[in-house]
Amino acid sequence: MSREHLHQISVHLRCAEPQKDSKLGWCGRHAQYFRPGRHLLPDAYYCDWHRAPSDLPVPVDPLIRRVAIVAEIDLAGVTLLPRPAQHEAVLRLEAAVAEIGGRLNICRVSSSMARQTPPARPAVTNAERGRG
Fold this sequence. Notes:
Elements: E1 33-35, E2 44-46, E3 56-57, H1 82-99, H2 126-129
């Protein structure tokens, strides 16, 4: 039995090139090329920068690993009015997710009035006091 699902909303394919110097570990740029898997390596997709001469154009119906993340994200509203603050926050989050090739599926948006406590002051060291 196949464990593939058909999704009507597509996401950008992302480059699978490992990046040792990146804390993300992978390139992740928009991929336009397909590299068939060999031996223990699975099929993968690559961007223009990391494509090999033997890579192929991406197939019409590529098989991908679709990652869904459920998270709660807190932002300060740009206004104290609930609807405009919520609307702007959703637009900003959609733009950020789209920039990395994803699609945002909003399930719920809420806001509340809150008083934020000031951040803790950093401790002053002896060197900063002139005793170091």
